[in-house]
Design a protein that fits this description.
mainly alpha, 20 helices, about 80% helix
């Protein structure tokens, strides 16, 4: 009875926050309520947007797998891994902008926010142009079918056009991607989330149409990559044209001071992203050279399930992060400490529940998702996936806190060690153990090193002022 009363009381308090009208931000209580209100809006709309994105993946994986077959699907999945590396061309500036906007918001420095936005936008425009020129010069110099280990399956020209189709949307999206980060910094990500729903909807429609018209492999890859730039473009147009026009990027607002502030955070973030991609995205390329394409395709499916699950878990509480920085700048340390504990509890509860579900019924989940039983794994593989999911969720919570607070350099060292360790273990384990070896390689450093080092580094941020 006591538990029921407590739950009802929490539900009543939560219901009081569910309104469109903002709370009074001039008092500590009002600021706290306003943070909770925006966290709720951002989370609900984030789930809607991510649900549509997951819908695109849920439809895309079995449809593309059926349309292309396992070996060509393996190439398509590997191209996707390549495009995540191309996203590094923002050199961490996009994620750095969240921190700067959150800081400016916490200090009520609107002029600083204008300078940061303009500097970041035109920096990304310049990077995009340089990267595009570099790609054009590089294309004829590389034997791409050898890079992706698809000799005899696909011609070098098809592979080359597949690379272009995968990379072009990512480059095009770089300058537009600042809109989501600006909204996140102002704790108004719900606006970008709603506008971003157009991307997956167009992507699903385009994919079905491409398969119906029997599109070539490069066209299919291009269609799969178009959702993010569509979503980001709409968000930036609305942000600068209607919602916050005073933030419209202008060359005259570009600032050397803002550039230095961006680089101060973006350089370690860039290295952090490199390490993260070494952890997550080199595996398929290594496996393509060390194992069969069928094994690569099988692991690509279970890895996609892991990435989707981690995305949902992070999304459920990601809206806490910009308020952590804003509250920290205002001196509301008790609010940060209390709500970080809540965030960790929610994430770990979801990770544990999903891990148990996959261990009990993982193959059933795959059968329902793929609509056939062509991909299945042993209980050992599902148990290893559960351990990876729980340990990665624990570490990511502390990593997210450190990132939003600009404590990134130590994490960069951690993730680079993790990346090198994952690549080496993948090289040695996957020929003998297949998907189980790849999962073990992915989880080793996270489980045995980062699970205790990350909380230790984050502890000073959670102590009373």
């Amino acid at each position: 009875m006591g538990l029921s009363v407590a739950l009802l009381e929490k539900a009543r308090k939560a219901a009081l926050l569910a309104r469109l009208e903002p709370f009074d931000p001039t008092t500590p209580e009002g600021r706290s309520r306003e943070r909770y209100r925006r966290i709720g809006l951002n989370t609900l709309t984030g789930f809607l947007n991510r649900g549509l994105s997951m819908g695109l993946n849920i439809i895309a994986v079995p449809l593309v797998l059926w349309y292309l077959g396992k070996e060509r699907y393996a190439f398509c999945a590997t191209i996707t891994s390549l495009t995540t590396w191309v996203a590094l061309f923002n050199f961490g500036a996009v994620n750095s902008l969240v921190n700067l906007i959150s800081e400016a918001h916490g200090k009520d420095h609107s002029e600083a926010a204008r300078r940061h936005v303009s500097t970041a936008f035109f920096l990304l425009v310049a990077i995009t142009c340089l990267a595009a020129v570099g790609l054009v010069l590089l294309l004829p110099l590389v034997k791409w079918d050898s890079v992706f280990a698809v000799q005899g399956l696909l011609s070098n020209d098809i592979v080359k056009w597949g690379v272009i189709a995968g990379v072009a949307p990512v480059l095009f999206n770089l300058p537009f991607s600042i809109a989501q980060q600006i909204y996140a910094g102002y704790q108004k990500a719900y606006i970008a989330n709603l506008l971003s729903c157009a991307g997956p909807i167009v992507g699903i429609a385009g994919l079905v149409l491409a398969v119906h018209l029997k599109a070539s492999l490069p066209v299919l890859i291009l269609v799969l990559g178009c959702a993010p730039p569509i979503a980001s473009g709409l968000s930036l147009l609305y942000l600068t044209g209607i919602d916050l026009p005073w933030l419209r990027p202008q060359p005259s607002l570009c600032s050397l001071h803002s550039l230095r502030r961006l680089l101060r955070t973006s350089v370690p973030l860039f290295l952090f992203q490199v390490g993260g991609l070494l952890v997550n995205q080199t595996q398929l390329i290594i496996m393509a050279h060390r194992s069969t394409l069928e094994t690569v395709a099988d692991y690509a499916v279970i890895n996609k399930l892991y990435v989707l699950t981690m995305g949902v878990i992070s999304l459920s509480t990601y809206s806490f992060l910009p308020p952590f920085r804003e509250a920290f700048e205002r001196g509301d340390r008790d609010w940060v400490r209390l709500n970080f504990k809540r965030m960790v509890f929610l994430r770990m509860t979801m990770a544990t529940a999903v891990s148990v579900l996959l261990w009990v019924a993982g193959n059933l989940v795959l059968r329902l998702w793929l609509r056939n039983g062509s991909v299945a794994f042993t209980l050992q593989v599902w148990a290893a996936m559960g351990i990876l999911l729980i340990s990665a969720t624990w570490v990511t919570a502390f990593s997210d806190l450190l990132t939003i607070m600009d404590r990134i350099w130590i994490q960069t060292l951690f993730v680079l060690v993790n990346g090198v360790g994952t690549a080496l273990l993948t090289f040695f384990l996957t020929p003998a153990f297949g998907a189980l070896g790849a999962i073990a390689a992915l989880s080793f450093v996270t489980l045995f090193m980062l699970s205790w080092l990350a909380p230790m580094v984050a502890r000073p941020l959670l102590e009373p002022a």
